[in-house]
Design goal:
The chain has about 90 residues and is mainly alpha-helical. The chain has a domain of about 50 residues. Helices cover about 40% and strands about 10% of the residues. The longest helix is centred in the N-terminal third of the chain and has 21 residues. It is elongated and about 70 Å long.
Length: about 90
């Protein structure tokens, strides 16, 4: 009986490993939404990182996060870093 149980466990583990090996190494998630506004009205909210607080889900989760902007916060090459101020901010 014990031998049968061990064989069953080994077979189940082998099946799980084979199935995991057959899965793709990567995946992607895409989302889209339709914004009922002309591009010239929406673009400033996306182009300037300092405007992201108006719509960013992450900033709403922790409005006290510490943000550091690059020299240029607008357009190509702009960047910013943030630090979460409280651990519970990561739970939504």
């Amino acid at each position: 009986m014990l031998k049968l149980f061990v064989i069953l466990i080994v077979v189940v583990i082998a099946i799980i490993l084979v199935l995991a090996r057959l899965r793709p190494d990567s995946f992607s998630i895409e989302r889209s939404t339709l914004i009922q506004a002309p591009p010239e009205k929406v673009f400033p909210y996306i182009n300037d990182l300092r405007n992201w607080a108006a719509w960013s889900v992450w900033e709403k989760m922790d409005p006290n996060m510490k943000k550091t902007y690059s020299t240029n916060s607008v357009g190509q090459g702009a960047s910013y870093e943030w630090k979460v101020t409280r651990r519970s901010a990561m739970v939504a």
